[in-house]
Amino acid sequence: MRLVAFVFVLIISTHCIFAQGLNRYQRTTFNVFFGTSGANLQGLDDFLEDRGEEPLPNNYRTYGLAYQSRFNDFIVGAELYQNNGANGMYGDYTLDYRTTRLFLNVGYSFTEEGKFHLIHYMSMGVGYLNFQMLKEVNDYTLDDFLDNPANGFILRKNDITQGSNKLGGFLTEIGFEVGYDLNILPSEEEISLIAKVGYSFNPFEESWKINGFTFDNLQSGAFIRIGAGITLPEENYFYRDASLGIHFIYGQHFSKPNALNQHLRDNGYKELSGVPQNLGLKILGENRGFLYGLDVYNVTMHGNANENYLQSLNSVRVYGNMGQKIIDLNDWEVGLLGGLGYANLRYSLMHKRKVPFPELIDIPDYDGELRKGGMMAKPEVYLAYALSLSKKDKVDLVLSLNGGYELPIGKYKLGDVSMSQYMSSPYLQLGVGVRP
Fold first, then answer.
1. What gap in Å lies between CA 209 and CA 206, rounded to an integer?
2. Cβ distance 314 to 322 under 8 Å?
3. SS3 of residue 376 by DSSP
4. Considering the chain, what is the average pLDDT of its residues?
5. Are 130 and 158 within 8 A, CB to CB?
6. Mind spelling out the 3-state secondary structure of 174-229?
7. Average pLDDT for residues 14-43, to the nearest whole number?
8. CA distance 254 to 33
9. What are phi and psi of 77, to 5 degrees?
């Protein structure tokens, strides 16, 4: 329900902002970002120092993507960030943390439309947090792992390994964005160079408390990010010759983890039942029938493993896509796309009953995880219907149906067991989005 509300707010915000000044200026932009943030880990570092261990570095790396629409001087958009902390050691264990954040942002431009812009913005959204202390299990077979999965502990809040719909909490950012456009492409699109500075913060104290310890500071800190992407100024094209839209997608993959389930049965665990669900974002641009864009979605299965453990099988997949629109009749569209990307695969066993955190770091062996990553490819076909939000607005609500087949490039082994059969599957996704 939180993500449904997020989509609704994005669509309504876009419509309201576009309605503020008809027949004036608009542009859409898509960027990918890399950056660094400073996180004040004082509480956690003090905890480690009291036990004679080195503190964790007070920074984390950020990777993300952002979609932004400008109408006159008003800005509305959405951002998705993955933040990875620097590792530390605690005896034979590796300390690590990561967070995911999904934001809706609004802002105002201090500059007139042109190649240079300066924007002040504020973001509100939801997130996920993972803090773990685990031993390396690279030499384990799958049966070895299932026989003894307790190799440390994993603490999660709003656990997206059970589905992206678990994103929650309330997070905010405030910052400034400066950008410059390079008109070096032979098409109407221009290259967008972006830099952002600001501060991320969690406004509610102890809202990221897990197992007796507060991890609020992992969701806060000053940041700097640099990015590049595609921008589509309205002055460069006629309406419907080019577009750049954002879509929220939900669907199913028609596969089962048969190889994993066989080993689960043999070791006294329950099988993962059903089929994997996926939820994510699709950025899709078009220029006179040529299609390009990016997909990111989270494929998940989860359930009880036995009376002591919960289990999850999770795969985040990121694709770059290119293709061609083959039918554009009135408001109906059909297109073909090909994608090449990266996917990880993560199988987790989480103990249902762990001691509180102060004791947990001294008695850590409860949970375990196996993971693998590799390249993926896919062909895809889509059917879409574009519905104008207003007779006067140049923005459409787009309903879509996407279907394709994913092909792993690699074996995706969990221990010694190949999961390529599971990763190779047809899928079907429903989408709803906006396209200025």
1. 5
2. no
3. strand
4. 89
5. no
6. EEEEEEEEECCCCCCCEEEEEEEEEEEECCCCCCCEECCEECHHHHCEEEEEEEEE
7. 72
8. 32
9. -170, -175
Between strands 88-90 and 413-414, the pairing is unpaired
Task: Provide the token pair at 384.
Answer: 């879409």
What CA–CA distance (Å, rounded) separates 10 from 170?
16
Q: HSE on the CB side for 178, CA within 13 Å?
A: 4
pLDDT at 236: 63
Task: Confirm if 118 and 80 have CB atoms less than 8 A apart.
Answer: no
Residue among 212, 201, 7, 248 at smallest CA distance from 99: 201
pLDDT-based confidence at residue 22 (cuts at 50, 70, 90) = very low
C-beta of residue 389 within 8 angstroms of C-beta of residue 13: no
Going by pLDDT thresholds of 50, 70 and 90, the confidence category of residue 362 is confident
The pLDDT tens digits for 67-124 are: 999 888 899 999 999 999 888 888 889 999 999 999 999 999 998 888 899 999 999 9
What are φ and ψ of residue 328, in 5° steps?
Answer: -140, 90
Provide the token pair at 374: 């590799």
Sequence length of the chain is 436
Cα 179 to Cα 183, 195, 222, 239, distances in angstroms: 13, 6, 19, 24
| CA 244-245-246 angle, 5° bins | 140
Q: How confident is the model at residue 238 (pLDDT cuts 50, 70, 90)?
A: low
Sign of the CA dihedral running 290, 378, 228, 218: positive
What pLDDT sits at residue 258?
95
